[in-house]
């Protein structure tokens, strides 16, 4: 168990402390930079969180008073997050704007959120969340790509949304009494329920033909993820490796609203960003990382990276090193 509170900070200084944490580094929950604001920055403020873990199941409960914060494309590029978060709303109402959608998350409901998509969050009073981490691999294996742009809301008032929210809350309530194996299996079942709740997946799995298409798309996406370092990953190569025609491959991606080329480039850019901002790869040059992720042209990479994340690779790496230095102080 790990806890963080602002109890030792004077109440009128607490927001400033939290704002500075969000603007630089937010350990040990996630390394996610954001810009926080309040109508009255000097007003009394309180916030804190606790984290528990069993097996692959990690649950963080966090609370705060009235607060608004924004995660911009630059913030996303500077501090990518290696997991999704299922946010259970325990207290208060949460207003979230992401993509072209605005969600109102009420107590008893849950929202699956990809924090690598820019968003604006508004909490008009005291709120309390309980967040369960969901790895990219777990969700992407079962869910249809696309929900990340707006988040996936599970309405806790009725139907499958209520089942998911209730199950997630019970799972997190019992985390201290679960064996690592039981906790991991419980998380796997939770992700399966989320996949059933995904409207895009339900629409595409309405027939045996659509079910097959979704399975083949998942197979292709896994192949791409496992072979990002291959420079000659052309549609023809990928199609042959997965036992289909090139036309069939393009049709698979047509249903997602994203072309094969765009999906491949996005995955490679995400991998580059992760390596550039990871201490594990700090000794590798940008050029080495770029070619290791399958890019053939530095010029193409730099243009695409700037367009995708709103910042140059070198700037993001410098920001990461600065954050790491602050965290060690």
Structural account:
It contains 13 helices and twelve strands. By secondary structure, it is of the alpha+beta class. The chain folds into two domains: 2-198, Jelly Rolls (Sandwich); 208-328, Orthogonal Bundle (Arc Repressor Mutant, subunit A), CATH 1.10.10.60. The protein has a seven-stranded antiparallel beta sheet with strand order 1-3-4-11-6-9-12, with helices on both faces. A five-stranded antiparallel beta sheet has the order 2-5-10-7-8. The two termini are 23 Å apart.
Q: Structural class of the secondary structure composition?
A: alpha+beta
- The helix count comes to 13
SSE pattern: EHEEEEHEEEEEEHEHHHHHHHHHH
- Biggest sheet strand line-up: 1-3-4-11-6-9-12
Quick one: CATH class of the largest domain? Mainly Beta
Query: Radius of gyration in whole Å, from Cα?
Result: 21 Å
Which ranges are low-confidence, i.e. pLDDT below 50, for 5 or more consecutive residues? 25-30
Helical content (DSSP H or I, runs of 4+): 40-55%
Question: For the record, what is the CATH homologous superfamily label of the largest domain?
Answer: Jelly Rolls
What is the CATH topology assignment of the largest domain?
Jelly Rolls
- Please state the average pLDDT score: 86
Q: What is the approximate shape? A: globular
Total number of distinct structural domains: 2
What is the distance, rounded to the nearest whole angstrom, between the alpha carbons of the first and last residues?
23 Å
Report strand %. Answer: 15-25%
Strand elements, count? 12
CATH architectural type of the largest domain: Sandwich
Let me know the largest β-sheet.
7 strands, antiparallel
């Amino acid at each position: 168990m790990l806890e963080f509170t602002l109890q030792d900070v004077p109440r009128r200084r607490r927001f400033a402390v939290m704002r500075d944490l969000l603007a630089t580094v937010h350990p040990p929950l996630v390394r996610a930079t954001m810009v926080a604001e309040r109508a009255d920055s000097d007003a009394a403020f309180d916030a804190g969180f606790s984290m528990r873990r069993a097996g692959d199941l990690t649950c963080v409960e966090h609370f705060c008073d009235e607060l608004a914060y924004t995660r911009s494309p630059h913030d996303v590029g500077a501090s990518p997050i290696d997991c999704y978060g299922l946010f259970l709303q325990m207290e208060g109402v949460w207003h979230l704007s992401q993509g072209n959608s605005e969600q109102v998350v009420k107590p008893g409901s849950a929202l699956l959120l990809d924090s690598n998509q820019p968003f604006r969050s508004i909490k008009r009073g005291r709120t309390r969340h309980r967040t369960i981490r969901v790895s990219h691999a777990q969700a992407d294996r079962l869910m249809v790509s696309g929900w990340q742009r707006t988040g996936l809301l599970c309405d806790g008032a009725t139907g499958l949304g209520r089942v998911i929210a209730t199950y997630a809350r019970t799972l997190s309530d019992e985390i201290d009494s679960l064996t690592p194996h039981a906790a991991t299996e419980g998380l796997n079942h939770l992700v399966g329920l989320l996949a059933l709740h995904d409207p895009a997946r339900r629409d595409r799995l309405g027939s045996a033909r659509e079910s097959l298409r979704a399975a083949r798309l998942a197979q292709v996406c896994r192949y791409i993820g496992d072979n990002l370092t291959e420079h000659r990953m052309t549609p023809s190569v990928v199609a042959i490796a997965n036992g289909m025609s090139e036309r069939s491959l393009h049709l698979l991606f047509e249903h997602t609203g994203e072309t094969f080329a765009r999906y491949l480039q996005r995955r490679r850019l995400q991998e580059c960003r992760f390596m550039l901002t990871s201490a594990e790869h700090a000794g590798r040059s940008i050029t080495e990382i770029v070619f290791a992720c399958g890019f053939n042209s530095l010029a193409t990479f730099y243009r695409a990276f700037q367009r995708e994340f709103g910042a140059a690779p070198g700037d993001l790496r410098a920001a990461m090193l600065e954050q790491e230095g602050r965290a060690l102080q």
